[in-house]
Design goal:
Number of helices: 6
Structural class: alpha/beta
Number of strands: 14
Helix content: 25-40%
Largest sheet: 5 strands, mixed
Strand content: 15-25%
Radius of gyration: 17 Å
Strand order of the largest sheet: 5-4-1-13-14
Distance between the termini: 31 Å
Order of helices and strands: EHEEEHEHHHEEHEEEEEEE
Oligomer: single chain
Length: 246
């Protein structure tokens, strides 16, 4: 088994297309497939902030649900959009407002189709994905070794939001512990969630959220090769969004 784990897309559909091409995938029948049978894995946060969240939902849901040509694990933005589609009282900010605006511009029939596709994608997704063939675990914000195998609320909170302390930075972002510094497992932990300027390797973990929606790059991590490929973003660069932790 060979996989290409794709970082947080956040509605950057054009960059996703370019990344697939750089990875050697070919597009046919609404699906990107690799001639060597490689499997893409989406690490969550498909939508919000970027310009084409609906298109990202369409391609990912089709590849995962109908074509069985990709895997997906949810992120915190996915969770929030799912709760919005369920009719929960969700605050439309931190990027959700851009996805909702796109959704509201659709016809009623298109809204029904997109809502159904995304909700099914989310409901059928594992909280995180264990891939023994490449000795890896894919989890949106990462996962502690002790949580692998668990899906309780504590594990879910960690996987979706990271190792939060309950405190807030002055700009409202949650304060998170650097859990990767303490990871000593044998499996790769591949995650995103916190934007970094370069793929961040710590112990046997890699953060591949290189902040495409904030103007930096969209990154994939390839296994078993243990290599990365990044595509420059088409969005305006926003330096304040990045973590400068080494």
């Amino acid at each position: 088994m060979k996989v290409d784990v794709i970082g947080d897309i956040h509605g950057c559909f054009s960059e996703l297309e370019q990344l697939f091409k750089s990875l050697g995938y070919h597009f046919a029948n609404d699906v990107y497939r690799h001639p060597e049978g490689r499997m893409p894995v989406f690490v969550g946060d498909l939508t919000d902030r970027g310009p084409q969240s609906i298109k990202v939902i369409e391609i990912v849901s089709h590849m995962v649900l109908e074509a069985k040509a990709a895997h997906y694990v949810p992120g915190n933005h996915c969770n929030k959009l799912y709760r919005f589609f369920k009719g929960n009282a969700v605050q439309q900010k931190h990027g959700l407002e851009t996805t909702v605006a796109e959704y509201n511009a659709l016809s009623e029939a298109e809204q029904t189709r997109i809502k159904r596709a995304f909700m099914t994608l989310y409901e059928q997704a594992p909280l995180y994905l264990v891939l023994p063939d490449v000795n890896a675990v894919i989890a949106h914000a990462g996962i502690k070794e002790a949580y692998i195998g668990r899906t309780d609320q504590k594990a879910k909170s960690f996987v979706l939001y990271g190792d939060t302390t309950g405190e807030k930075h002055p700009d409202g972002r949650p304060v998170r512990r650097d859990w990767a510094q303490h990871y000593n497992g044998e499996r790769w932990i591949i995650y995103g969630h916190t934007p970094v300027l370069e793929p961040r390797f710590v112990n046997k973990t890699i953060n591949i959220d290189t902040g495409c929606v904030f103007g930096n790059a969209l990154t994939a991590f390839r296994l078993p090769e243990e290599t990365t490929i990044s595509i420059p973003s088409e969005q305006p660069f926003q330096q304040h969004a990045f973590s400068f932790t080494n």
